[in-house]
Amino acid sequence: MRTRKTNHLIKLIIDVLVFAIFLFVFAMFLFSLFYKIFGFYKTDYIVETKNKIAFFAEDEMMNPIIKKDDLIVLEKISNENDVKNGDIVYITESGSKKLARIDHFRIENNEKKYITKGIKNIYYNKEDITIDKIEAKYTKKYTNKLLITMIKISISKPFSIVISVFITIVLVFLIRNKKRTIKRNLKRQSYNT
User: Fold this and answer.
1) What is the mean pLDDT of the chain?
2) Phi, psi of 168 (to 5 degrees)
């Protein structure tokens, strides 16, 4: 038979767990909402800040360094000194953006032109790239599947709707529960007097 203290302790633990889950879900919702409102997306899965770019690798072109669905972080470059041979860079080539590795460079008409290719490619990319077409260089990647899945879910549009409904339901439940507790306490006080 449980005592009053045990019941109170169990209720407290449940309340703390519900609150922790609510706080986590609310934080994920705010993360999602913040990035949607301020429009940091270039595509569904690209986040851009002042000096960093993060997105999910869409193909195996840079395998084994970067695999499909890895979350990669790139640092924006400001001048030619920021890149060197062997760097993986985010470039604009023929109007599309992609990752490429700088193989070497050459000087043509006093302008440095970078020759790029994929890791596995034998052939070089079609265009020689100038510094103005290099947006950023690869700095690190995250391969943790749980982290990647959570981020993908948190930035999806259905997630925002589901979380909004969930938060509303939890708030209504918490308010109703608090009202019941207040009514119960008032009844106890009236019986005791």
Assistant:
1) 78
2) -60, -45
The dihedral sign for the CA sequence 18, 20, 21, 27: positive
| Alpha carbon distances (Å) from 57 to 17, 72, 180, 190 | 36, 7, 51, 65
148: tokens are 């990647």
Residue 46 banded pLDDT, cuts 50, 70, 90: low
* Predicted confidence (pLDDT) at residue 44 exceeds the cutoff of 50: no
Q: Please identify, in words, the CATH class of the domain defined by 57-142.
A: mainly beta
Do 132 and 92 touch, CB atoms closer than 8 A? Answer: no
Question: Alpha-carbon distance 49 to 66, whole Å?
Answer: 21
pTM (predicted TM-score): 0.56
Q: Per-domain residue ranges for the chain?
A: 57-142
Question: Per the omega criterion (within 30 degrees of 0), is the bond before 64 cis?
Answer: yes
Query: How many helices and strands in the chain, by DSSP H and E?
Result: 3, 7
Cβ partners under 8 Å of residue 7, min gap 6: none
